[in-house]
Amino acid sequence: MSRALERYPEVATDPLAAVTLLQGSVCSKLGKQATLFMPTGKMAQQIALRVHADRRSGRRSFLAHQTNHLSEWEDENYAVLHDMHARLVGDRNELMTTVDLRAGLGEEAATVVWELPQRELGGELPSWTDLQTQLSYAAAAGVATHLDGARVWQTTPFYARPLDEICAGFDSVYVSLYKDLEAPRGAVLAGDENFIAAARTWRHRLGGTVDEAWPLALLALDGMERASAAMPAYVAHAKTVAAAIMERTPATIRPDPPHTAMFHLHLPIAPAAARYAQQQLIEDGHPRLGLRIRTSPNPVQCSIECSFGEASLALDSTLIADTVKKLIDLARP
């Protein structure tokens, strides 16, 4: 907070200026007409879907990948609060394709949702050509395009394009303020002026107009400048670590090589044994590889989501790879 207040001294006399500054900065980076600060990403996502549905009278569904964040992690708020339903398409273990999109897009759909990067697939990204083809198809069908861009800051090295170009084909974009920017909480929703005006009304209806939340905006401003500059280094470190793991252990990486500053570490050991081994290693002073052990359809395999940011740069790739090897060895009978 002290560092951020030094960088933005006007906030000391007008705290709400932090929100204005954040909205303007995100608006510029994403290349959209307007933005709106939200206290949580869950609120931002459901509002985006509701506004797009209301603009397309009678269309109460959205199309998304099997593992979209709204269905997996948000208690289906779109259904309970907004009388909408999801049409899930494609293979759960593969990226959504243009064929999936064409097969799933019906007359009742108001919106198509993309998640870039795809968290449940280890941060995988579609090729630029595939993404543009899908966006063009949706636009031609008169369907809104929404980007779940919680971690969109990570996509610039892979696409070798600025954020405004990456976001150009989307009618609305949600970005998280904590998943890479390291604010405690918060989100920003972006779109055209009419979209944001409607979103502002829904934010108020859902209890999200919280003036006292300005510290989240200030911390996100500070984090955005640091993360934007450091993201290539985070992605490069993820690739270096992944290569070391593949070289020194029987584990595998998805995607290989990583597309972003995260990947899924797939282990040839049972989940319960992996949990026990990881806890033992943490108690012995080894770095934590991820927040939780993910189960697999194969009961003798599991995976860990590994994310890379400022703190991880201090961890040598060999150290991490050796920790993975020790985890596997300790978990095996």
Give the secondary structure arrangement, pairings included.
Blueprint: H1 2-7, H2 10-13, H3 17-30, E1 34-38, H4 41-55, E2 61-65, H5 69-73, H6 77-82, E3 85-89, H7 98-104, E4 109-115, H8 128-140, E5 144-148, H9 156-159, H10 163-167, E6 172-176, E7 187-191, H11 193-205, H12 214-248, E8 252-254, E9 262-267, H13 271-283, E10 293-295, E11 302-307, H14 317-331
Helix pairs in contact: 3-12, 4-11, 12-14, 13-14
> What percent of the residues sit in helical stretches (DSSP H or I)?
40-55%
Radius of gyration: 21 Å
What is the count of helical runs? 14
> Sheet bearing the most strands, described?
7 strands, mixed
End-to-end Cα distance, whole Å, is 49 Å
Total beta-strand segments? 11
Q: Which regions have little confidence, pLDDT < 50, spanning 5+ residues?
A: none
Q: What is the typical, i.e. mean, pLDDT?
A: 96
Gross geometry: globular
Please tell me about this protein's structure.
- With 333 residues, the protein is an alpha/beta fold.
- It is built from 14 helices and eleven strands.
- The chain has helices at 2-7, 10-13, 17-30, 41-55, 69-73, 77-82, 98-104, 128-140, 156-159, 163-167, 193-205, 214-248, 271-283, 317-331; strands spanning 34-38, 61-65, 85-89, 109-115, 144-148, 172-176, 187-191, 252-254, 262-267, 293-295, 302-307.
- The strands form two sheets. The chain has a seven-stranded mixed beta sheet, with helices on both faces.
- Helix 12 crosses helix 14 (317-331).
- The longest helix has 35 residues, at 214-248.
